Structures are given as C-alpha cells and as structure tokens.
Amino acid sequence: MAAPNRPIYLDNHATTPLDPRVLAAMRPWWEENFANPHSVEHALGRAAEAAVEEARRQVAALIGAEAREIIFTSGATEANNLAIKGAARFAAGQGDPRRRIVTVRTEHKCVLESVRDLGAEGFEPVFLPVQANGLLDPEALRQALAEAPTLLVSVMAVNNEIGVVQDLATLAAIVKAAGALFHTDAAQAAGRVPLDVGAVPIDLMSLSGHKIYGPKGVGALYVRRRPRVRLAPLFSGGGQERGLRSGTLPAPLLVGFGEAARIAMSERMLDSGRIAGQRERLLAALVAEVPGVRVNGDPERRVTGNLNVTFPGGVSAQAMLARLGDLCVSTGSACSSAAIEPSYVLRAIGLSDADAAATLRIGIGRFTSPADADRAAAMLADAWRQALSETRDAAE
Hints:
This is Cysteine desulfurase. GO terms for molecular function: 2 iron, 2 sulfur cluster binding; cysteine desulfurase activity; metal ion binding; transaminase activity. With 396 residues, the chain is of the alpha/beta class. It folds into two domains: 8-17 and 268-395, Aspartate Aminotransferase, domain 1 (Alpha-Beta Complex), CATH 3.90.1150; 20-262, Type I PLP-dependent aspartate aminotransferase-like (Major domain) (Aspartate Aminotransferase, domain 2). It is 41% helix and 13% strand. The protein has helices at 20-26, 28-31, 43-63, 76-93, 109-119, 138-147, 168-177, 251-289, 317-322, 344-348, 353-356, 370-395; strands at residues 8-9, 70-73, 100-104, 124-128, 150-154, 181-185, 204-208, 219-223, 294-295, 306-310, 327-328, 359-363. The strands form three sheets. Strands 2-8-7-6-5-3-4 form a seven-stranded mixed sheet, sandwiched between helices. A three-stranded antiparallel sheet has the order 9-10-12, with helices on one face. α1 (20-26) runs antiparallel to α8, α3 runs parallel beside α8 (251-289) and α6 (138-147) runs parallel beside α7.
C-alpha cells in the first residue's frame, strides 16, 4: 500500500516491483557466493551452477515444461528474437523452402521488427489484423495458413497494452494442423493466466523476469524438445545454454527469476482474485466520476490487472499525465513511450487517432491496495476534469 505522500504505482505492464522475497533469495548470490556458475572446477562454482539449475526447474514448472527445455536469456526481447530469427534461419540453412512468417499487428515491437527483419533475408512477413475486441479471429489465421506453406506463426499470449488473452489452445491447434511452428510471447501472461506447454502444442515461448515481480535483465525461451525444435543462435560464444545463447549466466538474476516463478505459480489464484477486486473497485469509481469513459479490449478475455481506458471530451492523455503527480500510469507500451504517434495497437482495434491520444493504460498489481485504487480513481477523474476544462477554454 502506498502512503498518502508516496507514488501509487499502476504501471505493472511496463514492469513489476521486485518482490521482497525475491530480493532476499538473490542477496546471497551477490554477497556470499559470487562465483561464475560455469566454473565447476571448484565448490563455489558448483554451488552457483546448482542454484542456476534450480532456477531453471522453477521457471520450467511455471509453464509445465522440462527444465532442459528452458534457455535463459537477457529478457523477452532477446527470447523473441532468438525464437523467430533462430527458427527461420535454421530452417533456411537446412534447405526448408518455406519462407512465410505470420504474426499479428498488435504484437510487441520486438516481434514485429524481428519478422520485418526477416523480410530482408528473403522471408515473407505476414501481419494479420485483429477484431475490434483485440483478439485474433481463428478463421483469419486458418485462411492465412491455407494461402501458402508457412514456417512459423507468432501470437502474443496477452497483449501488453490492452491486456486481452488470446485463445492459445485454438490458435496453436490450427498452426500445428498446417505443419508450422508456433511461438508465443508470454511475458505478460506468465503468472497471470494458466500456461501449460504439455497441454497446448506450443513450440517456443518467451518469458521475462521483471514482468512477474522478478529482476530486470533476465528472461527465458522455452524450446520444445519433443518433437525437437531447432534454432540457429543469434551470436557466437562459449556454447552455454545448449549452444543457443552463449555468455556467462548471471546467477543472482536467475535465482531471483526462479523464486519469482515459484511465487507466481503458488500464488497466481490469490493474486488474480485480489487484483481483480482492485480493478473493479477502480473502474466503478472512475465510471461514476467520468461519464462516457470506455475500456478497450475484450471485457472478459483479459488479464485481471489491465484497464486500457479512453477518456471522453477530446482530452489529451499527455495533458492528464501532466496533472497526475505521483500516480504512475502510462499511455501504452514502455518501449514506445518516446514516440508521439498514437498507439499502433489502439489503431489496430479501430480507435481513431483522437481517441487513441486520449487513452491511458492502467496496470494493477500484486501490491495495489484498495486505498491505492480509490485514490487513483479520484486523481484520474480530477486530472480529466482539469484537462477537459482547458480543452474547452482553448476552443472558445
């Protein structure tokens, strides 16, 4: 809970705060055993290696994978690049004639740019539209796969701006029936929705530590072992991580990632219920104070902590942010925050540029209290009224 004079943090899609239990688990690996986990010739190195492998098991358990199917990376951006470029380049190197790479217009930029980059290497990028609720129509995917042989499909599990949850089971089944690989960016899904690669035919899945109350700078790529998925590494080095991701593994970060995954797995239902309560509390207060406020994205198929809200009256979200003081919300993806153009995700679901420019992303998390929700709603309503008054004055 934030004290009255402390910031209220509601930007949990950009990053989550480090859980104190995660910090406690990490501390000894900085202060007491700082050994390289690849230095297995001595006791400290072997202890660090054992801690890394325990973290690998914890991350794997979160998604129903085997530990040996987890490749540690610096984050989900690297994992997405490795999955998409690595799969395409390996297949091409083996003489696979397929060049079609299919994804969705509302994906994270690192996925969109990875697919575009492959276009310069002779692959055929395909970007599918979404419905007005932000979800991919399975029939649209099926039709796209029927047009030409496809190598890989990438669909984000949970959208980082509007919070909608794609039907991975249905989409993955369509992709596998077409003989293509299926990748999902699950950075926003892990710890928030059930994920089970044993039940859903997902070949590649990207994860991030700092989206599940773990440390920044660490992530993972799940790579299915049976049937085996093969990738070309992005860069050369010492051959760590089964030769797919060379470089010294950061033991403290991985221990933290593992502990965050363990907590997320054991407390997901508790977190989800609590967060849903704060979301509904905040939304009810906001609707009462701001007539005509609108939530974007499917109202049911969404993660509990997400509210992507368009404010009425032609106000500017930037003008509201300038009046929000110590309330931390955003206009969209953190990686796009320097851009001044309206969100491409909001455009993809049919919002006008004016409406997109009047939209804020609110991310409620594990540590959001009822008092935080109440205070945030009041601050948002006040900021909207002030911005609306200014807008009207300027028009007169």
